[in-house]
Amino acid sequence: MSSHGRSAVPAILAACLLAITGMSAVPARAAQPAEPADQVAYVDVAVATLWTEPGLNRPIDAPAVGDPVDPRRWTDDQSVAQRRWLVGKLETQALYGQRVTILERSGDWVHVAVAGQPTPRNPLGYPGWVPAVQLTTNPAFASQTGRRFALISAKTTGLYQDSARKHRSLTLSIDTRLPVLGRSGGSIKVFTPDRGAAWISAHDAQVYASPADIPRPEPADLARTARQFAGLPYVWAGTSAWGFDCSGFTHTVYDVHGITIPRDAGDQFDAGRPVAKDAMQPGDLIFYAYSSGYIHHVGIYLGDGWEADAPNNTPSEITRLEIVRVGEQRYADQYVGSRRYL
């Protein structure tokens, strides 16, 4: 997905993103309008998948809508047709501990806006429906969110019950952020939304006092982060290490480095600074559009003529995040421009 525009443009189910103007990139996490404490919740599964409507899920989606979730099994068990069915039915994903604003409720589902995923659709964050079982309003966790935090920088890492990291209780995705309580040897003690104190490997995370303290990346840093996801399955709405859509991939690569860009490709195009194709540097985004001007795809330039991107699944093929020559990219003849955020 890439955003698809999904619910906003239901007729365009195969497109990657909705182009809407007026967004701008901001450092670290974008400031959000204040909301009452009883409207704030936190994701308490490894990755929560947001839907366009409550209750759309099929039996095969059980690993994605319960608590705990199994995102790898969810994607691995689906056929091409089953994966393509998700196009237009999912909005985005939110990671463990990520803050959301509750907008409304319907039975066992909650309509939320995901903080840190800018969109013109809602100033509080990217909207979508999520099973209520995947959220917590734990006030103890909320009280810890202003302190130092650990940012997961490895593709995935374990969350452990003990400092020796012998008893894993959860697997976390890159870009997960949790408050830090302390450190013991090679382990960082973190506070979690649903299980109190826990431990992660210090090798797999960086600790910062605030989002503003995340070092501004060099172009090569963005390219290095992007390259590690080669071969990852395409997942419509994906923003985690278990699968990305095209704009979820680019958004996450920048977010890991403390730069918040819009969630959707069209908005990413509008937010960046134009750069000539022959002047691109690693980390620049490359956009593709139909003749109508509708931007449907985005990739990230790696340097030396190479690009990384997550192409949508075809009717006969489950696609994976690829590294390909810019001129040989499957949408090369639909190139519409490049943008820079550094």
TrEMBL record:
Q: Work out whether the entry's keyword set contains Transmembrane helix.
A: no
Q: Does the keyword Signal apply?
A: yes
Give GO BP annotations, semicolon-separated. Answer: proteolysis
Q: Which residues form the signal peptide?
A: 1-30
At the top level, the lineage of the source is Bacteria
Domain NlpC/P60: where? 216-342
Please give the Pfam families that the UniProt record associates with this protein.
NLPC_P60, SH3_YKFC_2nd
Q: Drop me one GO molecular function for this one.
A: cysteine-type peptidase activity
InterPro entries according to UniProt: NLP_P60_dom, Papain-like_cys_pep_sf, Peptidase_C40, SH3_YKFC_2nd
What keywords would UniProt list here? Hydrolase, Protease, Signal, Thiol protease
Q: Could you say which protein family the record assigns here?
A: Belongs to the peptidase C40 family.
Listed PANTHER family: GAMMA-D-GLUTAMYL-L-LYSINE DIPEPTIDYL-PEPTIDASE, MUREIN DD-ENDOPEPTIDASE MEPH-RELATED
Name by which UniProt lists this protein? Peptidase P60
Provenance organism: Flexivirga endophytica
